[in-house]
Amino acid sequence: MITPFDLILILIIFSFVLFGLWFGLIHAIGGLLGTLVGSVVAAKYYKRFGATNLSQVISFIVLFTLGSRVTGFIFYGMEKLLKIANILPGIKTINRLAGGILGLVEGLVIIGVALVFATKFPFPMLITAVGKSELAQFLIGVGTTILPIFPQVLKQVQEVQNVLP
């Protein structure tokens, strides 16, 4: 049975796919790498900018956003340079379809990791919604599978979790 939480998850994942289709593969790769760079930068440096729990959470968010946007800007420049190839027949279509596929993968990974992280905290409404959602269980499986690939990031994210009340 599809729950309202499933519909929200589907909408979020669908937005990642649309993002990939609209902007193409190069932009989607930039978004994915931006997410990874933002995560690493934020996890490594957030403690330097915050003394209290709240300030550390805020510094994590700000550093994540900065790392992600700087990487995105670099890929934006690369994308503009490679626009010349779009005059070849079919290249633009292939770029967009591949971007949609990567957008789907990116959405599954990001939502999966976010759900794994979010379910570590005592939010009864979220835990109940996740428990009733088959899609959320699948996404948590994806997130759990992906997290060991980034052991250092996982360790630093767990440190953030230990700081939060």
Automatic annotation (TrEMBL):
The chain crosses the membrane at residues 7-37, 57-76, 97-123. It is found in: Membrane. Keywords: Membrane, Transmembrane, Transmembrane helix. InterPro entries: Colicin-V_CvpA. The keyword Lipid metabolism does not apply. GO terms for cellular component: membrane. It is a multi-pass membrane protein. One of its GO terms (biological process) is toxin biosynthetic process. This is Colicin V production protein. It comes from Candidatus Uhrbacteria bacterium RIFCSPLOWO2_01_FULL_47_24.
